[in-house]
């Protein structure tokens, strides 16, 4: 198969691929090959390469792709959404939409593992945590979870871990159907007994680890959960309250009512419905549970000069470190959407948010009074925004009538209609909605919030929520935060296994089109024809590219795609009567989520050793298969391997596992090295997940959004994720079917137009060529830097795949300089660090992607060589490690410009080590962080403004105080 050339410089292929034809020839010459075809033949095992590219259609121009998307959008029918069920109408302030969601500085940022260059997004995420803590009345909140349903499942798991003796969990029957569907099956997967019950009665039975309470319920009904909370505490269990954050401006907080955990969805804080996502769920817990909290946690530490600085706290809880001992498999969260929700709270402030809540509640109360006056029965006297109206036998008729009038409401059942009010609702809407239930003048309704639930405790008291009164202030605040960070809009982000490539603006700008963004996820299919057609075409393309039979885009992160695939395998074995197949073989080099996902799928992890060349150790695999063969459910393979090589034995490994009756899971995180050239479903895989936020250009967003579609072979199709809204959670799903994974049928559908655009604009041959270009870039860096930093693993012909690992261990032994020192020093050269000490401690893993041009690759090479020279000065004894420029990196603008300078090296060496930095220079806002301090002194909410005084004092002030 010959790779296509870039013949049209205006094509999207040319726009997406960094090196032009002349630069490509320079790189090929350096690597030692005359063409991309020759390079691919040399690096890729011949028995896995396709003979013709998978077909996704001829490439479209950016204009043509947007025109097609416009056609899809126009097929959708946007009604005014009063449906509820966890998704509400909201208004995204334009300054936040343009300043966060549509700003490349925010959406191209990576997860803030390197805190010195992530202070802006860390501050925004800490604001999100503070917002959640204050609203819920609980002291510790995480930096977001994926969606409400899976967040409730995480809460159930947390309660089970904290109360190990209890194996039963009670789920409130008034929870949203999708929440019940996902949480019940996730609980059953870890062998918990699930009871869905009416919590208006007394708790019965023993062996309870906890209860999950709706506050309010899915039909709008509002009752005080304090009695249930006290009852479960009396039985030694924990209480989780699922709540709407807007309601908490008027309702007493779960913490005040005694809850241990609060969970919810921040969608209605300015994030469009997006046909289901992405949206930032949240979880807050008591202090006693903080070290078992799933997901990421932003905390406050100090930098080398004692100034406050933010970082991810308690990182040993992260799945990539704890592996099968992880408390969760969460890898990507919903950082970009959490930032949006936090800025919505900052912009409106507590008074503004309370006014929105009061207006929403007032309209709901007016609607209830009006339909009562017209003779209809309102189901509940107490509610926040949702009014359930009894219409015996006529619910669907009312729904249809209102649809004709332009309104989407919910048939809760055949006899009950639910009407949920959102931010843009008006008094005119009350009149039109009420008219469907009978005649009558609009009535003014009294509050429907009981006195014992009316909020009395203050909330959102931190100064940040009282500062931004104008659009000018918010615009500048967002710019100030963004300027602190280093994202793809400034520099190459050379992270191995993370594929931080160009995100097509032509796709990005379409996601906020109202015809896409304002569709409710439970709208009838006839109102979402455009969405469904787009998704089906994308799923078809992904199936073609991977070589599998069918794809589901429901998993809303790579971790959830892994879980979906492993659950499919587990349920396939059970359906075939192979109950004993509960072992998952995981190579030692695998991504950390692999082992964590296997554990969540209730599979036992057995590790397979790594051979000296970085591949799977076949002898150890044979030994493990001989020992566990009849119990092997699957093996999880990352291909190319996490070590950055195409293993020649991949087909052999797949065959060995199949021979003992196991299934093969091929982790698709590295599809950037395969797309268009090889298909996992054709060289031995039974199931794979894909990271659309990597290979298929959905932006990382500072740690989310992500989409992790699961692709399966024909025999696993029945076990793909099912529609969570249709699940009957009262009984386990039949063994021959799949289970729901996230809150909506199509997961985070809102960002799928980005991947659709990328595939449509690249075309079949363009995708293959991009993959080859990514491989060329990695080999160019490996060849150019080999003498400075040895490449740890290579494959056939001494080549790497799309990434390579630079080994610093010998240099560390000679000089004391660590891989972390190099990572911090790269900041001074204007680069985000490569992947640090994964998968091998003391190394840096680099992935350039196909999007970086030769000048940027050479700038990175220049920086790495300069750092190598700085290391050599220490090795040669000219500089002591403790006094070196590396040991004290990075350097802020203040640190190199203030009067005092007590280093042996010059300010120029510190901040401008190469001439190119004199024109364009990024300064981090803080010095190197004290990582341990933040864990010893755990602070996970916004510090008071005076905490930052130290950062602004003069040297003389600091000296005088000392």
Query: Strand order across the biggest sheet?
Result: 2-8-7-6-5-3-4
Give the low-pLDDT segments. 950-962
CATH superfamily of the domain at 538-725 and 734-764: Type I PLP-dependent aspartate aminotransferase-like (Major domain)
Query: Rg, please?
Result: 28 Å
The strand count comes to 25
Question: Topology, please?
Answer:
Elements: H1 12-16, H2 21-31, H3 36-43, H4 62-75, E1 80-81, H5 94-101, H6 104-107, H7 119-136, E2 140-141, H8 148-162, E3 168-172, H9 177-189, E4 193-197, E5 208-215, H10 226-234, E6 238-243, E7 261-265, E8 281-285, E9 298-302, E10 308-312, H11 319-322, H12 335-373, E11 377-378, E12 386-390, H13 395-404, E13 407-408, E14 410-413, E15 416-420, H14 427-435, H15 471-483, H16 505-508, H17 514-517, H18 529-546, E16 550-552, H19 558-575, E17 583-587, H20 592-600, E18 604-608, H21 618-628, E19 632-638, H22 650-659, E20 663-668, E21 687-690, E22 710-712, H23 752-785, E23 804-807, H24 809-815, H25 819-828, E24 835-836, E25 843-846, H26 854-875, H27 885-888, H28 893-897, H29 907-911, H30 931-936, H31 955-961
Parallel strand pairs: 1-13, 3-4, 3-5, 5-6, 6-7, 17-18, 17-19, 19-20, 20-21
Antiparallel strand pairs: 2-8, 7-8, 9-10, 11-12, 12-15, 14-15, 16-22, 21-22, 23-25, 24-25
Helix pairs in contact: 2-23, 3-23, 4-18, 4-23, 5-12, 5-15, 7-12, 7-15, 8-9, 12-14, 18-23, 19-20, 23-26
EC number: 1.4.4.2
Enzyme class: oxidoreductase
Organism: Corynebacterium marinum DSM 44953
